[in-house]
Amino acid sequence: MPAERGPAKHGPASGVSAEARRRRLIAAAFLLPALVLLGALVVHPIGYSLYRSFFDRSGSTFVGGDNYREILSDDTIRTALTNTALWVVLAPTTATALGLIFAVLTERVRWGTAFKLLVFMPMAISMLAAGIIFRLVYDHDPDRGVANAVWVGVHDTFAESSAFPKARPGRDSPLTDAGGGAFTTRDPVRAGTPVLLPLVGVAPEALPDGTRTAGTAGAEPGKVTGTVWQDFTRGGGGSSNVVDPTEQGFAGMRIEAVKDGKVVDTATARSDGTFTLSGKADGALLRLPAANFREAYSGVEWLGPSLVTPAVIGAYVWMWAGFAMVLIGAGLAAVPRELLEAARVDGANEWQVFRRITVPLLAPVLAVVLVTLVINVMKIFDLVFVIAPGAVQDDANVLALQLYRTSFGTDADPGLGSAIAVLLLVLVVPVMLVNIRRLRKEGSR
Predict the structure, then answer these.
(1) What stretches of 261-409 show up as alpha helix (H) in DSSP?
(2) Which of 3, 144, 286, 393 has its CB surrounded by the most CB atoms within 10 Å?
(3) For residue range 75-116, what is the model confidence (pLDDT) as tens digits?
(4) Which of 399, 270, 273, 377 has the alpha carbon at shortest distance from 319?
C-alpha cells in the first residue's frame, strides 16, 4: 500500500516568502504611478529625442549623424558650446566662492541673519523677473541703467566730461580747426584789443549750470581780454560774430595762448564767457583745446558683444549666491568649534584657520553646491533670453537657448533641435553620475 501523505508542513520559510511577496506587491502598487509618470515625462521624451535626432526637419527622411555633424560645423552652435563652457567654469565657482565668503564672514556679526536674508532674497524672484531687472540695470543710458550711472559717476569724478561736446566755429568765424578737436584763432591777438571767440552747436539746455548772458569784455592795457560764447539767438535774429543781448556765455571754457607751439598762458572763461590773459599772450594765437569738446563719457556697453556673457553671468551669481551661502552656512554650523579654537590656540591666524581647517571640513558641502550649480547652468535659458538684446543673442548664446531657437519658430528644425537636446543630456549625465557616486560614498560611511 502506498504510504499515506501527511499534512503539508508550513515552516517559517514559506511564511516569510509569502510575506515578502505581499510587501513587494504593495511596494509595486505604490511605485507604479511614479514609474508611469517617470516613463511618460522622462524616459519617453529622451528616447523620442534620440530617435528624432536622426531625421531631417520634416521627420520623414533618415539622415543618420548629419544633425550631429552640423552641430560641430555651425558657427552659432559652436558659440553656444563655448559660452556654455564659460558658464560652467565661471558661474558655479563664483557663486560658491561668494556663498562661502558670506557664510564665514556673517557668522561673527550680530546682524548676520539679516544680511543672509537680503542675500538669499533674490532666490524668491523668478528668472524672468530677474532678467527684466538686469536688462534695466545694464541699460547703456546712465539715466536709466544703474550700472552705468555708477560707472559714469566714478569716471567723471576723476575725468570730468566737457559741457560743450558739439561746439564748433560758425560761418566766417575768427576760429579755425587746429586738428585733434582743438580750434585756434586765425590771427595773433594783441594786448588791449578784446577778442571775440564765437561758437555754435550747443543746445541752450545743455549749457552748464551758472551760465549767464554773454558779456562784452572791456579792453585792459597790457592784457588780452575777450569773450567766448554761444553765437546763436533763440527765435532767430542777431548778428554773426557779435555778442547779442540774449546769447549765452560758455562758462568754464579753457583758453590757451600759444607762441611757437608752446602754451605761454591760460585762462578759464567766467560765467558770462569773458576771460583775461596776461601780457604774455600778446602776439600769440588763442587756442581752445580739445578737452573743451570731449564727448561726454556714456559708460560701458554692458550688453555689447564682448561683455554680454559676463554681464548675464553676473545676474545669475546675484540670484544663486544666496543659495550657496545658505547651504554652506548649514554645513559651517556643524563644524566642531573645538577644532577651530585649538588651531587658534596653536598660533594659526584666521586665514590659516579658514584655508586649512574650515574649507577642508566644508569640502562635502562645497561639492554639493558646486555640482548642483553646474547642472543648473547647463540648462540656463531664461536669463540669456531676456537680458541679451536681439542684436547680440548670437554672442550670448548657450545650448539651452540654441535648442529653443532651433526647435521653434518659422525656420524650426526639430531634427537638429533634438540632436542639441541629446548633446545637452550627454553633457549633463557625467556630472549627475559623479554626484550619485559621491552621495553613495557619503551614505556608506
Answers:
(1) 308-333, 337-345, 350-353, 359-361, 363-378, 382-387, 393-396, 399-407
(2) 286
(3) 888 999 999 999 999 999 999 999 999 998 888 788 888 888
(4) 377
Chain segment 329-379, per-residue pLDDT in tens: 988 888 888 888 888 888 888 888 888 888 999 988 999 899 999 999 998
CB-facing half-sphere around the CA of 111: CA atoms within 13 A: 4
Report the length, in residues, of the chain: 445
Rounded CA-CA distance 79/5 in Å is 81
The answer to whether the CB of 191 falls within 8 A of the CB of 216 is no
Beta bridge partners of 392: none
Q: What radius of gyration, in Å, describes the C-alpha atoms of the chain?
A: 37
The answer to whether residues 245 and 301 touch, using CB atoms and an 8 Å cutoff, is no
Confidence of residue 1 (pLDDT cuts 50, 70, 90): very low
Q: What is the domain partition of the chain in residue ranges?
A: 66-151+302-443, 175-293
Sequence-separated contacts (24+) of 113-122 with Cβ below 8 Å: 116/322, 116/325, 116/326, 116/329, 119/321, 119/322, 119/325, 120/322, 120/323, 120/325, 120/326, 121/322, 122/318, 122/319, 122/322
The mean of the pLDDT values for the chain is: 87
Query: By the 8 A CB rule, do 378 and 399 touch?
Result: yes
Contact of 255 with 284, CB cutoff 8 Å:
no
The per-residue pLDDT for 396 is 93
Spatial distance between the Cα atoms of 136 and 144, rounded to a whole number of angstroms: 7
Provide the pLDDT for residue 235: 67
Which CATH topology does 66-151+302-443 take? MetI-like fold (1.10.3720)
Closest CA to 400 of 412, 389, 385: 385
Cα distance between residue 355 and residue 363, in whole Å:
11
Q: Cell for 170?
A: 560758425
Q: pLDDT tens across 252-265, in order?
A: 889 999 998 899 99
